[in-house]
Amino acid sequence: MTKAPLTLHLAAPRGFCAGVDRAIRIVELAIEKWGAPVYVRHEIVHNRTVVDALRAKGAVFVEEVHEAPADRPIVFSAHGVAKSVPAEAAARDMIQVDATCPLVTKVHIEAARHHENGLQLVMIGHAGHPETVGTMGQLPPGEVLLVETVEDVDRLEVRDPDRLAFVTQTTLSVDDTADIVAALQARFPAIHGPAREDICYATTNRQMAVKAMAPSCEAILVVGAPNSSNSRRLVEVARKAGCPYAQLIQTAAEIDWRALEGVRSIGLTAGASAPEALVNGVIDAVRARYDVTVRPVVTAEENVEFKVPRILREPA
């Protein structure tokens, strides 16, 4: 049976970013250095395949520090943690390894600096997301006000409108965040912002690639986890950029083929915590059903690399 022709637009950059690469390597090095098990507070990154692979190597994932034995190392996830978390680990005299993405740490440092300067902080982010919880937890209660939408800005009750600063979660929609920032600056003209935007390079680059290919695609598939903020944003960006259909999938097994009936142009990308093997699995699944022509959509080149913590470079 002759396969129908299909053009597969393949976004670049896609998949793992430097922060995710570093976080995974940190867990692997910790297991090499101290042996299994090594405990990890929260999923190291938001991807089930990555977590399962590390679990098979000897990582044990827990939600809170007290769930791990005090005599084993504990790794903090790439999303960052509140100050109370390492304080609890220190009180138990645990070996701590911080896998927080350096770009998230940058936001933590900004928050602390604004607080030291007497400014109340506004954080643009998603309530309950580990990164947002970690950043808000850098300062005392009440010092960080969370906004998720432009409408939230209208409802803000601040201590002093002339003594404010804002930071953002690193994995937000670039366009949506710009609208919220504009609303903050309109209502609070004296508000201080970051010298460089907090949304990370990887989030921005992956959204730009999706924007570039969306007008040429009848559907876009985003490989990523349901709890991955940057992956979910890619789906939203695809729809807003004019693609009629966009689906978030964890693996090729989740593709809704009925929704793709009659489609002759599909875009494919992956969130920053999704392994390339999962992308290849989707390509194979599409090739099994269609006569595929792959067209790369390259909008940026990435060569960022982050060092692992010194504790992992020192002898055991």
Automatic annotation (TrEMBL):
[4Fe-4S] cluster binds at residues 17, 101, 200. Binds 1 [4Fe-4S] cluster per subunit. InterPro entries: LytB/IspH. (2E)-4-hydroxy-3-methylbut-2-enyl diphosphate binds at residues 46, 79, 129, 170, 228-230, 273. The keyword Electron transport does not apply. Belongs to the IspH family. Its EC number is 1.17.7.4. Keywords: 4Fe-4S, Iron, Iron-sulfur, Isoprene biosynthesis, Metal-binding, Oxidoreductase. NCBIfam families: ispH_lytB (TIGR00216), PRK01045.1-2 (NF002188), PRK01045.1-4 (NF002190). It catalyses: dimethylallyl diphosphate + 2 oxidized [2Fe-2S]-[ferredoxin] + H2O = (2E)-4-hydroxy-3-methylbut-2-enyl diphosphate + 2 reduced [2Fe-2S]-[ferredoxin] + 2 H(+); isopentenyl diphosphate + 2 oxidized [2Fe-2S]-[ferredoxin] + H2O = (2E)-4-hydroxy-3-methylbut-2-enyl diphosphate + 2 reduced [2Fe-2S]-[ferredoxin] + 2 H(+). One of its GO terms (molecular function) is 4 iron, 4 sulfur cluster binding. It comes from Rubellimicrobium roseum. This is 4-hydroxy-3-methylbut-2-enyl diphosphate reductase. Its cofactor is [4Fe-4S] cluster. Pathway: Isoprenoid biosynthesis; isopentenyl diphosphate biosynthesis via DXP pathway; isopentenyl diphosphate from 1-deoxy-D-xylulose 5-phosphate: step 6/6; Isoprenoid biosynthesis; dimethylallyl diphosphate biosynthesis; dimethylallyl diphosphate from (2E)-4-hydroxy-3-methylbutenyl diphosphate: step 1/1. The lineage of its organism: Bacteria, Pseudomonadati, Pseudomonadota, Alphaproteobacteria, Rhodobacterales. Pfam families: LYTB (PF02401). The active site is at residue 131.
